[in-house]
Amino acid sequence: QVRLVESGGGSVQTGGSLRLSCVASGYSISTYCMGWFRQAPGKERETVGIMNSEGKTRYAEFVEGRFTISRVNAQNTLYLELSSLLPEDTAMYYCATAPLRYCPSFASDGFRYWGQGTQVTVSS
User: Fold this and answer.
1) Facing residues of 69 across strands?
2) Measuring CA to CA, which residue among 13, 17, 53 is closest to residue 33?
């Protein structure tokens, strides 16, 4: 059974940093496409970035080099390093997986399994 559990969210000031973790179970993260997504109150869910089974990443334009997706296969954990955070980055952040080697799409509708999310709040 696939399960994803996020952690690492919190409250920071503008310019701060956080590292989000997504621990997977039920499969190996090195075999499937994974992604990070976020949803702010009153807004639609948007893709932050994705990583395919080969470790190749793609990011949304708003990331502008501030965020980095990485993984540690031995820990079966996906990470999202957030830096230079802005108030508009405030959102619930989710990790998800599409049970395919290569990501079916950049949009979230291609991802089948989701974690419960971790809240990131950035104050000005």
Assistant:
1) 80
2) 53
